[in-house]
Write the structure tokens for this entry.
Amino acid sequence: MRAVVMGAGSWGTAIAKVLVDAGTETTLWARRPDLAERINVDHTNGDYLAGITLPDALRATSSVEAALSGADVVVCAVPSQSLRDNLTDWLPHTGDDTTYVSLAKGVETSSLLRMTEVIGEVSGVPAGQIAALSGPNLAREIAEGQPAATVIACADEHRARDLQQAFNTGYFRPYTNTDVIGCEIGGAVKNVIALACGMASGVGFGQNTLATIITRGLAETIRLGVAVGAQIETLAGLAGIGDLVATCSSPLSRNRTFGARLGEGATMEEAQEATNGQVAEGVKSCTSVRALAEKFDVEMPLTGAVHQVCHGGLSVGDAVSSLLGRSTKPEIYD
């Protein structure tokens, strides 16, 4: 099996390292020729994973054609809202039996499609050739070789098991799952909830508040997931609560960091600087996730509040007041 990781940001680079460490022949595509050259010569990606030594066997290129030539597995590691345009450019260089793996966690704003649905629509391949990888996976910790687990979700269980072996290392343990919807909904919503946790932290609230946001965020995730066809068990697992806790709790999370700066009073532009220019997926996903919830008539007040802060001019303080001022109700309801 030969894999190519399309996108040399922090997560794409970390996953490329995982694949090589698992014994899978892997190429990393970087948009910028200078970055590809540094990876090949210095075996580092200082722009996104400073201080991490990459395997000698990992080769990088800025040529789309060279990267994709002969690839059995194409790992899509670009931001969710740019996946469609990128994949359209890549498609002439991929094979009919190519397996696609999405690392992006979001819902496309224009179509409200999940990332595997975008891949299917653009490529025309059946759902069984498309997988999603999701779990409590902070890029730097994975790149450092710290123990972690993930979920590889694919409608074709045999293909999922092949991918499981391609990604399996002594420190990175993949589990398989056929519930692609659950894995993707968990990954998309957790970025939004991480923004909310960051905002609360930036304001100065403590652990009670953060635990409340995480728990109520999980309730929102489950309500939306079930409405669109996910399994509750998936959302109670690594790709659901596991990813949610990691992203909401760690200062390594871009979404949490972005939210914290907003909570401290920063503008959207200033908060972007705090993430070193990298994309905080939740900033755009809060809009598409909210729209998806409205489409399925699902109540998601935390998601709505985050959207209003990021795109509606609402202050973090007013967002907190609006959430606390909502009418009381049972913890569990339809």
Summary: DSSP finds 16 helices and eight strands in the chain. The first helix runs from residue 10 to 21. Residues 22 and 169 are 5 Å apart (CA to CA).
